Amino acid sequence: QKEVEQDPGPLSVPEGAIVSLNCTYSNSAFQYFMWYRQYSRKGPELLMYTYSSGNKEDGRFTAQVDKSSKYISLFIRDSQPSDSATYLCAMSVNNYGQNFVFGPGTRLSVLP
Amino acid sequence: DVKVTQSSRYLVKRTGEKVFLECVQDMDHENMFWYRQDPGLGLRLIYFSYDVKMKEKGDIPEGYSVSREKKERFSLILESASTNQTSMYLCATIDRETQYFGPGTRLLVL
Hints:
The structure holds two protein chains of two kinds.
Chain A: E1 4-6, E2 11-14, E3 19-25, E4 32-38, E5 45-51, E6 54-58, E7 61-66, E8 71-76, E9 85-92, E10 101-102, E11 106-111
Parallel strand pairs in A: 2-11
Antiparallel strand pairs in A: 1-3, 3-8, 4-5, 4-9, 6-7, 7-8, 9-10, 9-11
Chain B: E1 4-6, E2 10-13, E3 19-25, E4 32-38, E5 42-51, E6 54-57, E7 64-70, E8 73-78, E9 87-95, E10 98-101, E11 105-109
Parallel strand pairs in B: 2-11
Antiparallel strand pairs in B: 1-3, 3-8, 4-5, 4-9, 5-6, 7-8, 9-10, 9-11
């Protein structure tokens, strides 16, 4: 079993839809959870960062962490064509970069 | 804004060639990282450096070496390129909990 699992997609939704992206993990020691967005031919950029359990909201984006289920989610409300990208989850026991574990990414297309 | 730049966006090399990938950051960060990104596998850490002349192996260091002579510059070296090193290479730095990535170098080894 991989340490972090993520459905690779592709996921296609119409503009305005609510998008749900998810990752599951096996290491219960993970405390730091991140979502990165990666546009085609670009490096990943940090979208959301959460420590431990709970929700975090930033504009149209909401990150949820359920440590009891070892499950994290990213919700995108009112999705836009500009949200079309690959979304990577990442997690870590501590916040030292060398310990980040990344999911393979989910490719999202938002159709106008 | 943190800026991480990589010397090339695309490279085509022949099997057996020595390949240098360079990364420069402008924020005086201590830690720098080299990852490779392959479809279905996500990002995998090759090497990282926590200071000048200091380096540590990541998860997949075989076939690679690194050099950090100056704080702002971290180089990845493929001593003898092989076709299985065809990949997207990403350099990153870290500021507290946030990793900042460069644009990536897409390397094709023929």
